[in-house]
Amino acid sequence: MTISHSGPCLPPSSSLPPIRSLICASEEQVSAALRGLQTLYCPLRLPILPKSSVRRKDLPAASGVSTPVPVDSGYVSQDEDEDDEAAAEEVTAAVRADPFERTFATRWLTSLISRIEEMDITEDAKAQIVDDAGFILSSFTGSMNDEEEEALTREFSFPTDLGAPIEVTLNDAPLTGTDHTDVGLQSWGASIVLSSMMCADPDRFGLTSTSLPGRPSIIELGAGTGLVSLTLAKLLPSLGVRPAGISATDYHPTVLANLQENINTNFPPGENVNMPVSAMAVDWSLPPPDLGSSSELLIAADVVYAPQHAAWLRDCAAQLITGDGAFWLIVTVRQNGKFEGIPDTVESAFMPELCPKDGQGRSFMILERNEVEKRRGVGRGDETGYNLYKIGWA
After folding, report:
1. I need a surface site. Which of 82, 225, 303, 382 has the fewest CB within 10 A?
2. From CA 332, how far away is CA 62, in angstroms rounded?
3. DSSP character string of 309-340
4. Among 382, 373, 388, residue whose Cα is nearest residue 334
5. Where is this region: Disordered (predicted)?
6. Which residue stretches of 116-162 are H helix?
């Protein structure tokens, strides 16, 4: 089953392989069918910054940082494409809301799971198919309307070599259903994976008293629920590092309100005179001048969802980071749907001719790139892995 990136999703009843022939279906056929169902029933919301923020030519130049004007990216503009996308989404929404199609998909998925052992495919492929099918089925158990979803309290425990694990409690609030920029109300796989990696191997990220200056300033961009910031706030003191402050930043007011609630849950105000984490509103296209070149450590997890996001993020980080600071960015790899190829936009944003330059002639560039495998039970079914970047001046 092939799903067009811009066209409407096909009804399950007319596109899924027949149940009676499932055991003869190839791994590729079943995987394609599952990708189509994920696109239809498990859509990922697209965070959008306001149109007023798009006009990079109107932004003041940062001191010591030049921002070259990128050449035509080859992407169709929003104005040209938005009518077609809106029409396609209207058709897709109708299919998604059809109770007959949902029942048909449910029966197909349960039949697939029950017959998986009869299929002539590898054990790893069987496990992946069962995971993906279960993920889609689990989305059917919730309400059809996001407004009726309930908040979810999640407990995270990340092992360390220090003895006690790092534990964080988060409130994952329901998405509003009316504003796609509230995607940060929920914790995504990349933030969980990055938090786990930092706890397991802090030296790799320079989280030591010898690598970081005394009382470093740390900023998380697109913090969402604040998982990475809160993890660092609990991890660093055990490593002998006392941050001057961790700024967990985001753009959406509802996300910031939920972020503040999570900070208060993990660091109750009455017990902490000096709160180690603070919530702050930051628009990547207009970073606050009082934060300029002040951060020794920048973090961002799963925040790139459109080609322009990588460029905004690049320029914002270049203005906020110190000359010898490090920016760790983890990007989710999705191999189907509208977010396929998003990691490539990060690589494109850091092409040599587009990288910001400082007064010493250095470029703000990708220093390291590593592929991180998806972990079982972590993240959405449409996530296939992650790209981890270390970025800095060189």
Report:
1. 82
2. 29
3. HHHHHHHHHHHHEEEEEEEEEEEEEESSSTTT
4. 382
5. 59-84
6. 123-140
Domains plus CATH for the chain? 1-45+82-146 (no CATH), 152-393 (3.40.50.150)
Mind listing the pLDDT tens digit of every residue in the chain (394 residues)? 333 334 567 888 888 988 888 888 889 999 889 988 888 887 654 443 433 333 333 333 333 333 333 333 333 344 445 556 666 677 777 788 888 888 888 889 988 888 888 888 888 888 888 888 888 887 776 544 443 445 678 889 999 998 899 999 998 765 444 343 444 556 788 999 999 999 999 999 999 888 888 788 999 999 999 999 999 999 999 999 887 789 999 988 888 999 999 999 999 987 766 789 999 999 888 877 777 778 999 999 999 888 789 999 999 999 999 999 999 999 999 887 677 888 899 999 999 999 999 989 999 999 999 999 988 878 777 788 999 999 999 9
This prediction has a pTM of 0.65
Residue 141: Cβ-neighbour burial (10 angstroms; 0-12, 13-18, 19+):
exposed
Q: Which residue has the tokens 């990079």?
A: 56
